[in-house]
Known about the structure:
This protein is mainly beta. The protein has eleven helices and 33 strands.
Amino acid sequence: MTLALPSFSGALAQTPQLGQVQSGGIVEEVRIEGAERIEPETIRSYLTVQPGDQFDSEKLDKSLKVLFATGLFADVTMRREGNALIVKVVENPIINRVAYEGNDRFDDKALNDEVQLKPRTVYTRTRVQADVKRILDLYRRSGRFAATVEPKIIQLPQNRVDLVFEINEGKLTGINSINFIGNKAFSNDELQAQIQTKESRWYRFFSSDDNYDPDRVTYDRELLRKYYLSQGYADFRVVSAVAELTPARDGFILTFTVDEGERYHFGHIGMNVGLKDLKPADLMPVVLTKDGDWYNADLIEKSIDKLTAAVGDRGYAFIDVRPLITRNKDARTIDLTYDIAEGPRVYVERIDVNGNVRTLDSVIRREFQLAEGDAFNTSKVKKSEQNLKNLGFFKKVDVTNAQGSAPDKTVITVNVEEQSTGDLTIGTGFSTTEGLLGNFGIHERNLLGRGQDLRLSGTISQYNNLLDLSFTEPYFLGRPLAAGFDIFRINQNNQRLQNYDEYSLGTTVRLGFDLYENVHDTLRYTVRQDQITNIATSASVYVTNQGTTNESSIGQTLTYDQRDNRLEPTGGYYVQLDTTIAGLGGNVAYSKNIVSGGTYITWAPKWTLGIVAEYGDINGLGQGVRLADRFFVGGDNLRGFANAGIGPRDSTSDDSLGANQYYTVQATQQIPLGLPEELGISGRYFVDAGSAYGIDVTPIAGHPITDSHEIRVATGVGVSWKSPMGPIKVDLGVPVKKGPHDNTEVFRVSFGTKF
C-alpha cells in the first residue's frame, strides 16, 4: 500500500483569490468549471453575484469566502472573461474508507465512534486535524500522553481517497510522584490516601488511578476540600494543582498547593423553626453536630438530611433547611444555626428516565419515593438516587431536576448508564474446612430487564458437594415484596470429624419485606429430606439410629440494621432474630431460635472494632432433636477450635453430637498494616469466646457423653487479602481456655479463585 500526502490545498492552506476580475459592468453569465460531483446550479446558489448584477469586488470576495466555507472545495478561483464570470473549483475528495494502523489500546470501533469523518463524507484538512485531536484526547484520557497520530491518504480514481490514521500509542504516562505544598496538619501520605489519583507502582496493574487524568485531578481537588472541611479547617482551599510532564515524557509530577487555614471548633449549635406547632427541642436529637466538637461540614450535610426527613415525617411537605454560620476567628469557633422555614410549594410535574436500553422503566420508577404530582422533597430525591445505585444495574446514576411548565412545578430527570448484570464464574480453591474445591455459578441480577434475580451455583470439594438454584422477584404483585424460591442439594462428607455422611435435598419459598426503615423481615417455608449415610463402624452409637427424616418448617428472619455497609461495616450496629418451627407435616418437630447482633466502631482511621454475639437454642416438640438440627460450634464462629470442635461428644468414639444451645462472642480489631491500600491487605487481632451444651438423648451404657457449659476462649491474629483471584484469609488462633475433649485448630486458611 502506497501512502501519499494530499497534493491539493485545504481551506486552511489556501487564501481565496479573485484572479483577474475588474469592477464595473453587468454580469451576463456565470460559468462553472471543474465541477464533477456537485451540480453547477448548487454552486451558483452559494454566490451573492448573479446574472444581471454588477461586477462588484466586495460581493465577489464574499461569494468566494462562502464557497470555501462550505467545505466542499479544495480550491476556488474567479476570473472575468468579457461580461462572463468564470468560477473554477477543485472539489475536495470523497472519503472511500477510514482505517487505523498501530492501534492496540482501542479497537477500530472505539476510534470510529470518536472521529467525525466517515466514508462517503467530504475530506478536508480542517476535519482531519479535528479528528486527530479527538483521537489524541481519547488516548490522553486513558493515560497515554506520548501518543502520536499521523493522518495519510491514498488517492483513488474518481476523486476519492482512503484516509489512514497511523497511530503510535506510546507508553502509559503515569504519575511519577504526588507532592503537596503548604500542608502542616496532615502528612503527604495522609493526603495521598484521600485523593483518587495514585503514584505509579508495579502492583497497580489492575487500576488506572496511577495514570494522569485532568478530570480526575479536578475531582481530587474536591476530595481534598471535603476532607479538610470534615476535619475542622473551614477556611481551607486548594490554591493550585499543577501537572508537569517529565523531560523524558514518561510520567507526570503532580503538585497540589494548599492553604489550610485555621482549625475551628463548633461553638453554639442552635435552631430557628418557623413552622407552626414545631419546636426546636423536638428536632435537636437528630442533629449530629455538637457544641465543642471539631467543625465538620459532612456532619452538617447529614444533619440537614435528617432534619428534612424528620420534619417531613411530621407532615410538612415544603420545608427549607439552611445552615447559618457565624465564624469567630479570634476564638476559632463557628456558631451554627439550623434555620427551618417553609419552602416554596413545588410539585413534581414529570419524571423522565433516560439511558435505560435493557432495564424497564417500571424497574427504575418503582425505586423512587416520589411520584408525579407529589410534593417535591430533596431528601426523597437523594434517597431515590441511592436506591437506584444500590440496585447494581447501572454504572452511573444521575438525578437532576429543573423547572417545569410553571414556577410551582419541577421535572425530575434520571440519567442512567447500564452495566453488565450477569456473571459466569468458574473457580478453584482450598480451605481447611472444604479441602480442595471447585465452584461454578451463573448469576443474572436483572433478568430480562425486570430486576429479577436468578442464580445457579454449585461447589464440589473433597468433603462437600452443593447445588443451589435460586430465583427472586423483588416486587411481587407490584409491591415491594421480595418473593423467591431456592432448590438445594447438599452432600456432606463428615468422615474426618464425625464418621458419617449427610445428604440433604429440599426447597424453600420466601417472602421478604420492609416493616419500617432499616427493619426487614423475611418469611419462609421449607420442605427437605435429610439422610445420615455411610456410617462408619467406629461411629458413635448415637449416630447409627438417625436414618432418614422429612422436615416441613416455617421460619422468619427479622433484622434491624443500622450498619453503614453490610459487607465491610465501619460503624453502626444490627440485631437479628431467626425463628424456625418444624412439624407441619413430616416426621420432625422442633422450635429453633437464633438471636444475633453486632456493633462496629471506628475509633481511628482504618482501626475498626467489631463485636458480634450470637445465641441459639433448639427444643424438640414431643420428640428428641435429631443430629442434623443441632448446633455445631467451631471454625468460623469460634476461631482457634476446629469445626464441631466443642460441645457434647461421645467419649468412646470421640464423635461430636451437636448441642441444643450455644453462644459465641467474637471481638475483632482491624489493624492497618501500613501497606498501600490498593494491595487490599489488612490485618486483625481477635478474641473469640463461646460454648455449646445440652443434648436430649438417653445415655447408653458404656458410651458416656461429655457435656460442659464451660466457656471456651481463643485469641489470635489474621490477615486478609482481596486478591484479583478472590479473597484469601489466614487466621492463627490459640485457645487460652478449652475443655479436655475439645478439638483445636491453630492454623486456618481459606482461599478462593474466580476466573
